[in-house]
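Exam revision sheet. Question 4 asks you to relate a sequence to its structure. Input first:
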Amino acid sequence: MGYALWLVPVERERRALARLMAFRPSYRRKTGSRSYPIFAPHITLVRFSGPSLPSLGHVVPPDATETPVSFETMRVGDNYLGALSITISKSRELMDLHDDIVNRLEAMYQIETKSRRFPHLSLFYVDEADERQRLGNELIQTGRVQRGANDEGLLLTYDPGDKTLKPMDGFTVGEIWLMDCTSRVVGDWEVKEKWILPSSERPPSRYGITPLPPPSRTKWWRNLFGKGWWRTAD
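Answer key, structure tokens:
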């Protein structure tokens, strides 16, 4: 896979997403599987090859600040690294940050970059195709993945039984990580450098304590099968 730049949530939201990523379905997976490695929740900004690595101080725009992003749909993929992810809305702020960094990488370091399905939030890496599908099913059935109000966006929560928790409809990008992903083993991936984005009048936390009213069961199943918010690989 080479090297990558990751957009990482601010710490509180990163911890909340990490707890969601600790979810394991009720069925038994194969012994010795490489599925479900532990990694930080992230949006891959770009991927590239060496041999020289960029300095984040050179490629991050000087006016870059924390950037809010919103969830759109859940996607069950057809390969290990794309097993289950959340599609992110293409806001102007996010796309401008992407374009600025890509332009700097190419101009300063002559690095040829790749952006695979940008932007999406990686949550689970799963080897077995049938298990990816069952994982998606159980995330929905247990209420950890929900459709947003008025059929818009997506909501995630690590504990649907705790009504004091407001499901997340997105998060704030607070850090950029330079990652060494050259190993085939996810657990061996290494953070080479971190860049903390300054706050710019951060909006109220997207992970609060106000519960949302549960949707009606009729509307829930109509959303599930009629609105296309849950997609499998093309």
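Marking note for examiners. The two ends are 22 Å apart (CA to CA).
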